[in-house]
TrEMBL record:
Its cofactor is a metal cation. Its EC number is 1.1.1.3. GO terms for molecular function: homoserine dehydrogenase activity. This is Homoserine dehydrogenase. PROSITE patterns: ACT, HOMOSER_DHGENASE. Residues 350-425 form the ACT domain. It comes from the Bacteria. Belongs to the homoserine dehydrogenase family. Pfam families: ACT, Homoserine_dh, NAD_binding_3. It comes from Cytobacillus spartinae.
Length: 432
């Protein structure tokens, strides 16, 4: 092959990074691939927009067909985002026997198995390393590096925007809105950041990770999700006081044949390795029965880190081309999906509630917990400004989700309980 021609869908934060890496690392790519790589055409929405990279205006198009139907284009790199329209483009490209590299978790979490099937039917590669944890080569590690093991737990900070926000709120006392704006300006957030802050972006990534890690098709609807928008300054302060750090954590856990996958704000013991992962950085802890504990750390968002994963996938496609093995690497899930019941999911919980400052209230509350066999690791009662009200903050020992939810229902019904202010999952034991 004289030159590898790329069709790039999208020239925003990630697309510009891809162009820069292909230009700046041309020597290295030549060495690995054996021929030069050229970005031939680029799909954008607005032809007149100022671009972060120099690109010949004639390469730009607003018509996807100019790229998908160009017989000289070997590989499509999709970094435009979106789901339905993008799915159509990629299906058409695969049917035209073009390999695809994508950073699109929204698409892969929903249509991944369909696209992978069509790719393999057409002898094409479909790689999506950048879709989970940006620049960290986590998918490759699960599929190749840990291929011989049985993975039972994955736990991760997989959204850079929310980690950036929580870090700045906890460490600098910054206001939520202000830090979200900063994350958008730095190119970490999605075009609609609701999916970041409501946990959906992380849920998509956990669906992709658990499908690969557990070899079981986990759908987005199987992932329980709670985002960071309800976290208050008081929760962060209490967390600190009790020796915990608040993070948006995705957990995927397999016990026997059953799994549970969730994303929620979690108070991590300060000594927990994920508690030290700050700013836009991501980390994924993976436990395999044979290997034990492993941890993958790196930048989870941003132009060049994400583009590194995209271009590395491109190198993977080229190596497969040279070996004549494209379209052979995707493995269909081995196990049928079995999800745990709430009675089978165990965790510790932090609960903050406002109660009437009266004799016997504390005892009534502890009775409800003991009826469900749930005991406390920590418990504090503090006065608050509002007259006649006390605040109770507690951390439970391990309880089933079913028991904990039943306890919350009973507490809400208790006359002496004015309001359940907040509740979070807790991981690890703090030293405080
Ligand atoms: N930003 C990040 O850190 C990461 C992003 N991703 C994923 O990468 C993808 C791209 O993200 P990002 O670069 O941040 O997004 P941007 O919004 O910065 O860029 C999107 C690009 O796609 C073009 N585009 C969007 N919709 C259309 C359309 N309908 N037709 C033609 N062109 C279109 C835009 O054109 P125009 O410029 O003319 O508006 C723009 O160039 C997303 O799937 C995202 O989830 C994954 C990991 C990290
Ligand atoms: N918006 C995402 C970008 C990378 O996937 C994030 O913040 O992690
Ligand atoms: Na990655």
């Amino acid at each position: 092959m004289e030159v590898i021609s790329i069709g790039l869908l999208g020239l925003g934060t990630v697309g510009s990074g891809v162009v820069k890496i292909i230009e700046n690392h041309q020597d290295k790519l030549m060495h690995q691939i054996g021929c030069p790589v050229e970005v031939k055409r680029v799909l954008v929405k607005d032809l007149n927009k100022e671009r972060a990279v120099d690109i010949h205006p004639e390469k730009l198009t607003v018509n996807a067909e100019d790229i998908i139907n160009d017989s000289e284009i070997d590989v499509i790199i999709e970094v435009m985002g979106g789901v339905e329209e993008t799915r159509k483009h990629l299906l058409a490209a695969l049917k035209n026997r073009k390999h695809v590299v994508t950073a699109n978790k929204d698409l892969m979490a929903v249509y991944g198995s369909e696209l992978l099937t069509v790719a393999s039917e057409n002898g094409c590669d479909l790689f999506y390393e950048a879709s989970v944890a940006g620049g960290i080569p986590i998918l490759r590690s699960l599929v190749d590096g840990l291929a011989s093991d049985r993975i039972t737990k994955m736990m991760g900070i997989v959204n850079g925007t929310t980690n950036f926000i929580l870090t700045k709120m906890s460490k600098q006392g910054s206001a939520y809105e202000e830090v979200l704006k900063e994350a958008q300006e730095l190119g970490y957030a999605e075009s609609d950041p609701t999916s970041d802050v409501e946990g959906l972006d992380a849920a998509r990534k956990m669906a992709i990770l658990s499908t690969l890690g557990f070899s079981m098709k986990i759908d987005l609807d199987d992932v329980k999700v709670k985002g960071i928008t309800q976290i208050t300054e008081e929760d962060l302060q209490y967390g600190k006081q009790l020796g915990y750090t608040m993070k948006l954590i995705g957990i995927a856990h397999r016990e026997g044949e059953k799994v549970d996958v969730s994303v929620q704000p979690t108070l991590l013991a300060d000594s927990h390795p994920l508690a030290a992962v700050n700013d836009e950085y991501n980390a994924v802890y993976v436990y395999g029965e044979a290997v034990g504990e492993t941890m993958f750390y790196g930048p989870g968002a941003g132009s060049l880190p994400t583009a590194t994963a995209v271009v590395s996938d491109l190198v993977g496609v080229m190596k497969n081309m040279r070996l004549g093995v494209n379209g052979k690497s995707a493995v269909t899930p081995q196990y049928p999906k079995k999800l745990k019941e709430p009675s089978e999911i165990n965790s510790k919980y932090f609960l903050r509630l406002h109660v009437k400052d009266e004799v016997g209230v504390f005892a009534n509350i502890t009775t409800i917990f003991s009826e469900h066999g749930v005991s406390f690791e920590k418990i504090l009662q503090l006065p608050v400004k509002e007259k006649g009200t006390a605040e109770i903050v507690l951390v439970t020992h391990h309880a089933s989700l079913q028991d904990y939810e039943d306890i919350l229902v009973k507490l809400r019904d208790l006359h002496a309980v004015k309001e359940l202010k907040s509740s979070y999952r807790v991981e690890g034991s703090s030293r405080v």
